[in-house]
Design brief:
Elements: H1 8-12, E1 32-39, H2 45-65, E2 71-79, E3 89-95, H3 107-113, H4 116-125, E4 127-140, E5 151-158, H5 164-184, E6 189-197, E7 207-213, H6 224-231, H7 237-247, E8 249-263
Antiparallel strand pairs: 1-3, 1-4, 2-3, 2-8, 4-6, 5-7, 5-8, 6-7
Helix pairs in contact: 2-4, 5-6, 5-7
């Protein structure tokens, strides 16, 4: 969230990239994403996916066509898993600005959403655990992506108070390495996001990174030392690891797999 932990939009206005949307830097300077975390009861996955793909996907397609949103993405959380996790599905919507999240549905779609059947089936299919709004900070590649990556590693970071600038500077070093990985074909895309809402210093994390992968096998097995050398970041692997550990705490890491999506064509 930038310098004062609620200024994700201010940072997003001057930096580039939006990994989840796969859009070009020039388009991403003020884009934000909303993330809804869903809990689906054991054995109810098919019913939930029917609601998302048969009832909601056409609505999101109409939203994108009307210019109300840039994209919508449905993910299954592969890890962590089990009865103790509080969410197992995630939906992500991408908007051109924070203002666009105020009235994200055209009037004709808003009328559909008020239909009793839509809301009844939606509420029965899943629990909406929480919603968040994030602003893009930086990302790679520098060109538009036609299709989203099938796998994402999402890492949630807690940054010490007053340490936002130091954290962003370290992510710029990591960006150099991710650009090498993209060129080598072991990474599809990458982005850093600052939390805009909910606000408050007591939230468990402030930032998130999204690493997109085209192949499941690339999720693990990173040659960190070799990558640092190939990216020429100006320090050793140990030095970068130490500096990274000082500027942020990695609170949680999750593996998401793409189930379905709607996306505006890249410009």
């Amino acid at each position: 969230m930038g310098i004062n932990r609620t200024a994700g939009l201010a940072l997003a206005a001057v930096v580039v990239g939006l990994s989840l949307a796969g859009t070009a830097p020039a388009e991403a300077q003020s884009q934000v994403v909303t993330v809804d975390y869903m809990k689906v009861a054991p054995g109810q996955d098919d019913g939930y996916l029917q609601v998302e793909q048969k009832m909601w996907k056409p609505i999101h397609e109409a939203r994108v066509k009307a210019g109300k949103a840039l994209g919508w993405y449905l993910y299954r959380v592969q890890s962590p898993s089990g009865t103790l996790v509080d969410h197992n599905y995630v939906t992500v919507a991408v908007y051109s600005s924070f203002a666009a999240t105020e009235n994200p549905y055209p009037d004709e779609l808003a009328a559909q959403l008020s239909a009793a059947e839509v809301m009844k089936k939606t509420l029965a299919a899943r629990d909406l655990v929480r919603s968040e709004i994030w602003g893009a900070i930086t990302g790679a590649p520098e060109t538009a992506i036609a299709k989203p990556a099938p796998f994402l590693i999402i890492e949630y970071m807690k940054v010490p108070r007053g340490g936002d600038e130091a954290y962003v500077e370290v992510e710029k070093l990591w960006k150099k390495m991710h650009e090498v990985r993209i060129k080598e074909g072991t990474l599809a895309d990458w982005g850093v996001y600052g939390r805009i809402l909910p606000g408050g210093s007591d939230y468990p994390y402030d930032y998130a990174t999204a690493n997109g992968y085209n192949r499941y096998k690339d999720v693990v097995g990173l040659d960190f030392a070799g990558l640092v050398q190939r990216a020429a970041v100006g320090m050793s692997a140990n030095e970068l690891a130490e500096r990274t550990g000082k500027v942020r705490d990695l609170v949680r890491s999750e593996l998401w797999s793409l189930v379905d999506y709607v996306q505006a064509p890249p410009k």
